[in-house]
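Subject: sequence -> structure tokens, single chain

Hey, anyone have a minute? Need the predicted structure for the following. Not urgent.
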Amino acid sequence: MPPTAPTPVIAASVAEWIGRLFVAGAFVGAACVAYGVFVERTWFRVRRYRLPILASEATQPVRILHPSDLHLRRVERRKPRFLASLAAEGPDVTVITGDILGEPEAVEAATDALHGLRGRAASYFVLGSHDHFAPQRPRYRNYVTGRRTPRVAVPGRGRDLVAALEADDWQHLLNRRASLSVDGTRFEVLGMDDPHIWRHDLRSALREEPDAFGFAVVHSPDPAPELAALGYRLIVAGHTHGGQVRMPVIGPLITNSHMPREMAMGLVSLPPSILHVSPGMGTSRWAPFRFLCRPEATVLDLVPGPATRGVP
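Reply:
Had a minute. Here:
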């Protein structure tokens, strides 16, 4: 006998369940977007790590405060308040790894917001593309495909930002090194301009003080393997926003980096070096949401430990 066609009652029931699933999915999706925009995007936190990577003869720990990707705008209130609270961490060294500005008009607001974050011994910063150029609506297809389509860049106020921060005792590490001593520990500090827009210069990374603790500061983590090979024991970067949108099991959907996706946030072991990639505190004005990737600043406490110790 030929197969019996589904009865109208069964077909209607299936259609009803499909409709219910569609409505439920749409509701869950809308709820996730609302959560990402109105809750998680400004749900700031401080994450702390204790890294046993100083020389064994070091007598005092060194505290590094690492905020990144602030994307500050003039109209913000919560983010500047959170930044002000970070002064209580008492950092010895503060490093900001670029994308300080969310709009060129925010130079003065950003300088005021960062005033209290300066480290006891030193305060360093490098720039990102959002500091060099005014933000433009992104071509979202490029983020998915990884392609970069040429476009006309609109200059930002990076020079004004550098001048304002330097007047407030911050040091701009533009493809150059600096020497630093904190409680008897000598550091050779390297800062490089944004590798994502090809402004970094690895020639500036050659070590001149190999006996000092090598500390590299860069906007994008892409050159981290080369910096580790050159002897920088600690490398800090940002740029990826931790993916900004992360899914259970899958992790970050897009990182805008050449590094593997699992290296888009947190501590990464590159023996004998450690890379810290900050998920940042801000978002682009064109994508004002986060999901399972809270905005954060990081406190790195460096303490004496074995010379070849990796991520604890």
